[in-house]
């Protein structure tokens, strides 16, 4: 950040009084600009023992597979965001079943909140951000062609849960080397 979004004057990085971390502070209007992690809402859509994955049409990682996921918009809740992303990327409607995982990526300031959802019907298709959308059996998941390590981590935990028939909420921080 170079300029204040309040008044347009230059900002400087400094620790505001009463704080303990450097922030972008405007010397002109004194506004403090906080930068905090962003939430990515995702959904693993289920249909009769299979899950729906999308092949990305856009960078980064175009051509690789992911479950529907994307940044939350202002004004929406996490489940709503997960349903919206599923509709946008896979043209599919889901009912959210449960929260599967909260995976933090501290080095890039993102938190993936991934839900499991049930497809309301077997209707799906490639949205604008997808080249292809397909249902996969658990044994067919293209592990070597997944778009992001966090997607692989969440899917691995999902498959392990389903295989064991034990479901719990996964909360973890992913190390840098996984991204
Ligand atoms: Zn300012």
Description:
Strands 4, 5, 6, 7, 8, 9, 10 and 11 form an eight-stranded mixed beta sheet that branches. A three-stranded antiparallel beta sheet has the order 1-2-3, with no helix packed on it. The protein has two domains: 35 residues, Ubiquitin Ligase Nedd4, Chain: W; 137 residues, Nucleoside Triphosphate Pyrophosphohydrolase (Alpha-Beta Complex), CATH 3.90.79.10. It is an alpha+beta fold and 179 residues long. The chain is built from two helices and eleven strands; from the N terminus they run βββββββαβββαβ. The model has no long low-confidence stretch (mean pLDDT 96). Strand 8 and strand 9 form a beta hairpin. It is elongated, with a radius of gyration of 19 Å. The site of zinc ion has 8 residues, from loops.
CA-CA gap between termini: 24 Å
What is the number of helical segments per DSSP (H or I, 4+ residues)?
A: 2
Number of domains: 2
Q: CATH superfamily assignment of the largest domain?
A: Nucleoside Triphosphate Pyrophosphohydrolase
CATH second-level architecture of the largest domain:
Alpha-Beta Complex
Bin the helical content.
10-25%
**Backbone shape:** elongated
The main pleated sheet reads as: 8 strands, mixed
- Poorly predicted spans: none
- Determine the mean pLDDT: 96
Under CATH, the topology of the largest domain is which? Nucleoside Triphosphate Pyrophosphohydrolase
Spell the H/E element sequence: EEEEEEEHEEEHE
> CATH first level of the largest domain: which class?
Alpha Beta
Number of β-strand runs: 11
Which structural class should the secondary elements be placed in? Answer: alpha+beta
């Amino acid at each position: 950040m170079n300029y204040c979004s309040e008044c347009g004057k230059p900002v400087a990085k400094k620790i505001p009084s009463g704080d303990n971390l450097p922030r972008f502070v405007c010397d002109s209007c004194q506004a403090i600009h906080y930068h905090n992690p962003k939430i990515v809402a995702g959904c693993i859509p289920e249909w009769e023992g299979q899950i729906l994955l999308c092949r990305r049409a856009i960078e980064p990682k175009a051509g690789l597979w992911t479950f529907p996921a994307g940044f939350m918009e202002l004004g929406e809740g996490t489940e709503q965001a997960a349903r919206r992303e599923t509709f946008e990327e896979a043209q599919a409607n889901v009912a959210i079943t449960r929260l599967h995982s909260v995976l933090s990526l501290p080095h890039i300031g993102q938190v993936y909140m991934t839900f499991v959802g049930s497809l309301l019907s077997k209707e799906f298709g490639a949205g604008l951000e997808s080249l292809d959308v397909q249902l996969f059996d658990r044994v067919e998941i293209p592990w070597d062609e997944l778009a992001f390590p966090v997607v692989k981590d969440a899917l691995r935990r999902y498959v392990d849960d389903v295989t064991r028939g034990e479901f719990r909420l996964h909360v973890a921080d992913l190390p840098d080397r996984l991204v």
